Amino acid sequence: MVSPLSLSKKVCVIGAGPSGLVAARELRKEGHSVVVLEQRHDVGGQWLYEPNVDSEDPLGMDTWKRKQMHSHIYRVPEPFRNEVVVVVGNSLSGQDISMELVEVAKEVHLSAKSLNITEGLSKVISKHENLHLHPQIETLQEDGRVVFVDGSWLIADTILHCTGYSYTFPFLDTKGMVAVDDDRVGPLYEHTFPPALAPSLSFVGIPRKIIGFPFFEAQAKWIAQLLSGKRTLPSREEMMRSIEEFYRSRDAAAIPKHYTHDIGDFEYCDRYGDHIGFPHLEEWRKQLCLSALVNADVNLEAYRDSWEDHELLQEALQSPHFTQLGAEDLTF
Length: 332
Ligand SMILES: Cc1cc2nc3c(=O)[nH]c(=O)nc-3n(C[C@H](O)[C@H](O)[C@H](O)COP(=O)(O)OP(=O)(O)OC[C@H]3O[C@@H](n4cnc5c(N)ncnc54)[C@H](O)[C@@H]3O)c2cc1C
Fold this sequence. Notes:
Blueprint: E1 10-14, H1 18-29, E2 33-37, E3 67-70, E4 84-88, H2 92-101, E5 107-111, H3 119-127, E6 131-134, E7 137-140, E8 145-148, E9 153-155, E10 158-161, E11 179-181, E12 184-186, H4 212-227, H5 236-252, H6 266-274, H7 283-298, H8 310-318, H9 320-323
Bound molecules: flavin-adenine dinucleotide.
Flavin-adenine dinucleotide (FAD) binds next to helix 1.
């Protein structure tokens, strides 16, 4: 229920992905009036699958004239039939896409920063004769040659960059009060609030390597309650001190700036929630997350279809998140 003393603000939410949607819901629940702007034809963000995308995504590297694209353009393996493809990056997208490509491509060459790979990827490579692991690319040459840092080379038809995603806010002019520097969006108190502008401007969904949806929900609730005056932020100076302290701790741990928002810490999510009395992550949720990661490491090809944490899943299904749903929502 909305307290009669709380302020109602007009709030614009940019983006209708999971972060924007939960922000809109929590803002509405808190009594604010909300407009959501979405540039695509429907809501869902990354979860809105669009089968048809522009197939051309030239990455502006002049010397190498053949096909190059980023993984966000990739949909199905068929266009790469009989090609020699270099996949750059062996993280989630690079691994998934390589496993699809090996079925149709002539050769798939996976270029990784480190040749120290997981057991799961190692098993996949030894199973497929047309899948090869290489170190990083050193140069690309005009004749289609891709040269790796160990001196080995090959002629490829396509290079597929599975190198992750970067933050960018081309529509937002904060006169430098929030800037993106090597994937650090800052300064942001608790990855959410620019001290000079919050809570008039706040960010939802910046952290990575977290269990996203409950975290976004906590962010949304905090923002909604700040705007209604139910809560207040620390002073600008305190927020800046906290941010600088955070940056120092990351430097001390030798974590590059590029990974500022990679959290990878359940306790941080709980501490974040404590600012607004948001429930801590349930034990089953943490365990399911960890067991899926371990299963993916060991059993890369099959981890989505076979798992051994059935009892955790049963526990999850008993939780209100699922018991509130109708039977038709629960198809696994
Ligand atoms: C390849 C990939 C796989 C992933 N897999 C998983 C997974 O399995 N599980 C998981 O939990 N997370 C996964 N994630 C993380 C994913 O980012 C989050 O689950 C979630 O989608 C983040 O929500 P978001 O709303 O912050 O961002 P997004 O989902 O990216 O949504 C942002 C929305 O904002 C819109 N937008 C952007 N700029 C503007 C503008 N100027 N005006 C209007 N609208 C705008 C976009 O069109 C989009 O709809 C994956 C991410 C990627 C890239």
